[in-house]
Design brief:
By secondary structure, the chain is of the alpha/beta class. It is about 50% helix and about 10% strand. Residues about 25-50 and about 55-65 have low confidence and may be disordered.
Length: about 290
């Protein structure tokens, strides 16, 4: 990736090295849904708690190992530039629509973190918390992305941030609240999961929209970058994660989308650059 023209975002909150303790938090429908998802995928339910939380779904990982401070500082600069790029792009898109883009904050943490959505550990993966409008990531996830998920490359790493920022866009547009309201009234867990899949795939498409706009305006992509991103989307598909963790797949339990679906919607955003192409809630759109 070429990020030389991208300014570092000033909306970075660095909580690395800050120790947090697990305390009691409120419950509700959101908590129940997240706990069911966590149980299904073999993640400790205490890792994920209530409140508009959208997570990159990963299986339980060993505690992250520390990285050299120089590498951490380099990665901090990288994520700050990626976040800055998304801010620039979405500000332009919102302005063209007569709206103002409210920038999210990206929180860097190590091992565990407390958000408006509750307590989470690094093993839960990066996530977006709607109530505080913040993206959370332990940078050790990028080691897992490269080694455990076989998805190396800087654009693969950028895709992770762009996906979570996609959830922020959904939050600003009111999509997230509408979907969660529908999930709370869903007749079954399968129906709620299907809604979650559509929300996640739309975030993938929105990540592709960012890449399309940023490349057209500032030529950020290099040869092989798109393939890196598509590979990352594929490797974190629900079917592949289930196969790694339990040796078989249960499509009714998908909450993020299959590898094929994630690749298809991320590619659609990259190739079209058209927000209308990101309607994952239309009839038959996710089949």
């Amino acid at each position: 990736m070429r990020l030389d023209q991208e300014d570092e975002s000033q909306n970075i909150e660095d909580r690395r090295g800050v120790r947090v303790s697990r305390g009691a938090v409120g419950g509700g429908i959101g908590t129940i849904a997240v706990i069911l998802i966590a149980l299904f995928f073999g993640v400790d339910p205490s890792l994920l708690l209530q409140g508009n939380l959208q997570e990159t779904n990963v299986s339980q990982a060993p505690p992250p190992q520390s990285q050299p401070s120089g590498m951490q500082d380099e990665m901090r600069q990288f994520v700050a530039r990626v976040l800055g790029s998304t801010e620039r792009t979405w500000s332009e898109i919102f302005r063209a629509a007569g709206r103002t883009y409210e920038k999210p904050t990206l929180v860097l943490f190590s091992d565990s973190v407390r958000s408006a959505c509750g307590f989470a550990q690094a093993a839960a993966g990066p996530f977006y918390c709607g109530p505080d409008r913040k993206v959370y990531i332990d940078l050790s996830f990028y080691r897992d992305l490269r080694q455990r998920f076989q998805a190396p490359g800087d654009f693969a790493q950028a895709y992770v941030i762009a996906h979570e920022v996609g959830h922020h866009v959904q939050n600003l547009l009111g999509i997230m609240n509408k979907v969660q309201s529908l999930e709370s009234r869903a007749g079954s867990r399968n129906d709620a999961n299907a809604l979650s899949v559509r929300l996640e795939l739309q975030a993938d498409c929105l990540a592709g929209i960012w890449a399309n706009f940023a490349h057209r305006e500032r030529n950020i992509l290099e040869q092989g970058d798109v393939e890196e991103g598509l590979n990352a989307a594929s490797q974190i598909g629900d079917d592949r994660i289930q196969m790694r963790s339990q040796g078989y797949t249960v499509p009714e339990g998908f909450t993020n989308g299959s590898a094929e679906q994630r690749v298809r919607w991320f590619r659609r955003g990259i190739e079209s650059g058209n927000l209308k192409q990101c309607d994952t809630f239309g009839r038959g759109s996710v089949s």
